[in-house]
Structures are given as structure tokens and as C-alpha cells.
């Protein structure tokens, strides 16, 4: 039987419908000369919000809803360090009424193996109340997120 970690280690760019490049910075490195763990979360949040702004109608200063992160974790398989170009790959593994589960992989440009795979869960809340809307997330948001939904994963839940 294959473990979940083994499955994640076999991820390729083809497993993700959205890809965003990020040029690492000298300040991303820690004292061990690889990208600091906190930067991974920064990058994961950035690729998600870039997609939401570009494809789901999110306007950070004026949208009636925004995604609040309620869970995150990351599995690290190999390091990346400055100077390198990270490729952040994004997919959606589950969409609920007001929540979405993202899977984000970090690859290094020019290298095949995945460096890390993380998960973020967001709950979309009303800007005024910071509570989930009983009607769920906005229709445009849902449509944009559905373009990243991995049906094979959804059926295994």
C-alpha cells in the first residue's frame, strides 16, 4: 500500500492546472543556505491570492467576501535556495459551501522532482461579519475555483 507521502512525492507539474513562477531572493535563505520554512507559506498564500484575483474576481480591498485560512500544513521533500526560480503549482482538491481545500506544490525550474507539497484550507467569510455566508461563496469565486478542481481526487473523499 502506498502512503499519502509517497503519492505527494510523485507529484508532477501536470497534476496542477495553474503554475506561477517566483524568483527566489537572497533574504529567502536561512542560516542553513536554503529557503526558510516560513517563506513556503508566504509563497503558497501568494499563488492562491494571485489566482483568486486573476481568475475569481477577488478584489482585496472591495470584495464582499474574502478567504480566511483556517488550516495549513506542508510536507518538505528537498530544499531550494537562492538563486533559483520556484514554480508554484496550484490545484483544488475540495470545494464546500463556503470552504476550499487547495494543494500547492513547489518545484524548482529546470528540475523534475517536487520540492514540497502543502495544503491550505480557506473559508470564505463576509467582509462585514468575518463569518461564513449561509448562502456560501460568491458564484464567480466558485466558478473560478471549479476550474482547478481535480475530479479524481474529489471522488476519493
UniProtKB/TrEMBL annotation:
One of its GO terms (molecular function) is fatty acyl-CoA hydrolase activity. SUPFAM superfamilies: Thioesterase/thiol ester dehydrase-isomerase (SSF54637). Keywords: Hydrolase. The keyword Hydrolase applies. It comes from the Eukaryota. It holds the Pfam family 4HBT_2. InterPro entries: 4-hydroxybenzoyl-CoA_TE, HotDog_dom_sf. Belongs to the 4-hydroxybenzoyl-CoA thioesterase family. This is HotDog domain-containing protein. It comes from Dichotomopilus funicola.
